[in-house]
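[job 0412] stage=fold_complex status=start
inputs:
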Amino acid sequence: MQEELKKSLSEAITQFNNRRTQLLQDAFQEGGEPALDKLVEEYDALRDAYFEILKRELDKNNPRYTQLTTATKAEADNLAKSLKKLNNVNEIVALTTSVINLVGRVLIVLGI
Amino acid sequence: MKQSLIVLLLLFLTSCSSSKIIELGSATASKGMDVSQKAQGIYASLSDQAGIDKSQQDQVKVLTHPSPSTMALPDTKAPDFSKQLEPRIQAYQNLFEVYKAFALLTDPKFSDKTKDAMTALQDSYDAIEKMPDLPADVKTKLPNVLKMVGEAVQAKEVKKNNEILYVLSEVYLELWNADKQTWNDYIDLIYNSYAEGLNTVDSKRYDVNKISQSNSEPYSDNATIILMYRLRNRDDIMKQKNDLKKQLATFGQALEELTKAHAEIAKQSTNMSTVISSLNKIEELLKDK
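[job 0412] stage=fold_complex status=done
writing structure:
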């Protein structure tokens, strides 16, 4: 139903576009500026309706994008944890180095 | 002795495969950042279309009005897609942040830092005269062994996170494909309305002298000069439309290749050339042409 409406609107817009100057000229001659304004308003309404259908199509996927945003946040946290795990290995080695340096200094101070 | 050789050989083989995974992960992270950034650029272009459409429609209204001297200044309502664009831009911003973190995790120099830390540890140990000397064999091999262990741990984390990124990229691709036709329809309506509307503008509105001043084509009669000008105008508009649509199409292909790269890395036995081929395709697709 929506697809058919979309197709009809697209065809109507194209038909108007292809005869735009002539249609506006006719409206102006028949009813002056008010008739012309009305015709342009109707054309704008056709385009608005078409855009509205496009928005609805996109809106269907909006909740899934919001879910994706949450899922990517969770993955960013996972990556931070993984990175911490890797840093821990180096930190342990660095800590051991500090302890050995300390032991060395204690041995010197005590003159052992 | 034999047992320790087997352990070392096993560690060496693991290390080769680990460094391969880390290297591929690093290259994929870099391309993942490029793809996420490209998506944000595309959504920015799509967001700009509202203003472009408004301006184009205002122009057409002036040029096709039978009495421009009496018409009010047109002010076409711009199509507002901000509610649709916002969650998409946010999702790709987050994806960029994820790939940034993945790039840190896949840093190939990470295990070198472990090796350096181990060398520093040995130097500290050696500096203490009272401590017994480490066997020469241990002294030379220990930093490398620790590097291999570090690589294995890193590769395991890369594999684990790559699998999650694979699933995520698949969903991003699925949603992109679901939106694709709608964005193409959006672009078609904007540019076709403009080109079709301009096609109907009365020839009397054009000043042949001004067209001739800015163009050196060899036509003498006014009608041909105006028609040629209109043709160029129409071609320019169609080119803008097609360039934009091409960007959408190539982005979709790049996202597909990114998903393929993740899928290959996630396999038990990763084919390196398949991943590299996908990454090269992404680079080619995202190049500004």
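[job 0412] summary: Residues 2-60 of chain A form one domain.
[job 0412] exit 0
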